[in-house]
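Record type: ASSEMBLY
Status: queued
Input:
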Amino acid sequence: MRPPKVLFFDVNETLLDLTKLKQSVAEALGGNEDLVSLWFTTMLQYSLVTTVSHKYYNFGEIGAASLRMVAANYGHHLSDEEAKKVLKPIRSLPAHPEVKEALSRLKANEFKMIALTNSSDEVMREQLENADLAQFFDDNLSVEKAGKYKPHRDVYHWAASKAQVDPADCMMIAAHGWDIAGAIWAGFMGAFIARPEQQRYLLAPKPEIDETDLLKVANTLIALKHSR
Amino acid sequence: MRPPKVLFFDVNETLLDLTKLKQSVAEALGGNEDLVSLWFTTMLQYSLVTTVSHKYYNFGEIGAASLRMVAANYGHHLSDEEAKKVLKPIRSLPAHPEVKEALSRLKANEFKMIALTNSSDEVMREQLENADLAQFFDDNLSVEKAGKYKPHRDVYHWAASKAQVDPADCMMIAAHGWDIAGAIWAGFMGAFIARPEQQRYLLAPKPEIDETDLLKVANTLIALKHSR
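Status: finished
Output:
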C-alpha cells in the first residue's frame, strides 16, 4: 500500500456524532429507536432511487420525505415542515471525541484533506463550522455539485478530478460500508471506521484499513508515510 | 389517461404475500419485527449501491449479505449459508388473496401482461410457478438480464423494448413507492398498490392509479378500456 495523496472524509457519522439527531428522530417516531436506523437507511435508499432516475433533490428534502414515509407506516403523521424541524439537529452535531486530534495529526503530517458528503453544500458548511472542524480541510465537496449521490462511481471520479489526482491516489475514509464499497469500486483506496452499528458491505473488496476510530486510521496513515 | 398497451407487474409484495418470509427473517433477528423492514430496506439500498458502482450480484446474494449485516448490528451472527436458509421461503410465497381474480379479469380483457422483478431469473420462475400465477404472463423479466436493479431508468427502457412498445404505452403496477417513482420518471404510467406499510415516494409525481389492492387496479383499467 502506497500512502494516498489525498484523503477524502465522509462527514455524517464518520466525523460527526449523530446522537442528537437520532434522539430527535426517535422522539418523532414514538420513542422506538429501531426505527431510527430504518429512517436513515430509507433516506439512503431514496437518495439512490433519485440518482438512478436521473433526478436530484437535496439530502434534507429526501431525509424529510423519508421520515414522513417511515412515520406514516407506524401511524405517525408529520407535515413536511414538522419533518424538517425534527431533522434540524443535523446542522449542529459535535465531532466524535477522537476526531479533532486525528485531523490535527494528519494535518501536521501534511496530508491533503477534503470533505466529501451527501449533505447539501449549505448544510455541510454549517456542520463543519459548528463542529469546529472547517480549518482542517483543503476543500469541501458536497455531492450537490455532482448531481448524484454517493456511492455512485461518478461522484468519486468527480471528486478526484476536483483534487487533480488519479482515483488510485485517493483514499475514502468513512464509517459506512456502502461509501467504502463504492469508493473502492471506483478505484480509490478505502479506510473503514467500524463505529457501533456499522458494517462493511460483505460483497465488496476489503478496504486497505479497517479500524474502530479515526485516530487509529490517522496513526496508520502517518506510520505508512514515514516508513517510505 | 389512455389505456396502457402493456402492464408490467412487480412480484414481491405486489403479487406475493411476504408474511412467511418476514416471519423467517424476524425469527433470525431475535423476534424483533421492526428489524424485518430494516433488512428489506437495507437489501434495496445495497442493490442500488451495487448498481451505481457498475456491479451486479443477484438479489439472493444481496439479500443474504444484508441480513448478515443487519443481524451483526444487533448481536446475531449468521453465516452466509444460514442467511440463505432464512431467506428460502421467498421461493414459495402465496399470492395475495385478490391477485388471481384480478389477473384473470385483466387476461380476459386482453391486456398484455409481463412480470418485471428484482428477483433472479431462476427465483422468479419458481415464485410464479409455486403461486400458480405463471399462466397469466406473456413474458417474465428479471432485472438479472438488464444487469441493473429497479428503479434504474435503464431497466424500464429495456423492459419496454423487450415488449416492443414505447415507455409511454407501458404501465408499472407495484406496491413499492420507489418502483412507481422510477417507472414514472422513465416515462411509464404507474399504478400504486398501497398495501400495509407501503408509501408512495413523496418527491415523485403522483401515479395515474393509487388503490389499495390489485382487483381495484384491474377494475379501473378494464373500465378505462371499455370507455374508449
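Annotation: The beta strands of chain A are 6-9, 112-117, 139-142, 170-174, 189-193, 209-211.
Annotation: Residues 19-91 of chain A form a domain with the DNA polymerase; domain 1 fold (CATH 1.10.150.240).
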